[in-house]
Amino acid sequence: MTKQFAAVLSLFVATVLSASTLFAQGVASIYSAMSAPIPTAEESASDRYFAPTDFLLDASGANFYVASEGLSQLRRVPNDGKTNAEGLPLSFKPFKMRFFPDETRIAVVGGLDSGVCAVVKVTEKGADGTVVPCPMTVVAEFPAGHSPSDVAVKADQDGERLYIANRFSGMLTEYNAADGAKLREWEVGREPFCLELTPDGTRAVVADRLTNMKANQSRSFAKVYVVDLLSGECKEVDLLNGNNDLQDMAITPDGKYAFISSLLCSYSAITSQVSGGWIGENCVLCVDVEKAQLVEVFFLDDAELGAGNPWGVAISENGERLIVSISGTDELIFLPLDKLQKIIAERPEWARPGYGAYTYASFAKGEVQLPMRIRVKFGFKGIRQLIARGEDVYALAYYDDAICKATMKLNPPYRYFPNSYVSSEKPPRSLEAVEAAKAQGEDAKPEDDSQKEAEAYAELCESAGVGPTVGAPLRFTALQTLVPLEGVTVERAFARLAPKPELSARRRGEIIFHDATACFEHWLSCVTCHPEGRADGFNWDLLNDGTGNLKNTKSMLLSHETPPCMISGIRADAETAVRAGFTHILFMPYKEENAVCVDEYLSNLKPVPSPRLVDGELSESARRGKVLFERFECSVCHLGELYTDLRMHDVGSKDPNDFIYKFDTPSLIEVWRTGPYMNTGEYITVRDLLKEGKHGLKDGKFEELSEDDLNDLVEFVMSL
Question: Cβ contacts of residue 649 below 8 Å, gap of 6+?
Answer without folding.
Answer: 637, 662, 663, 665
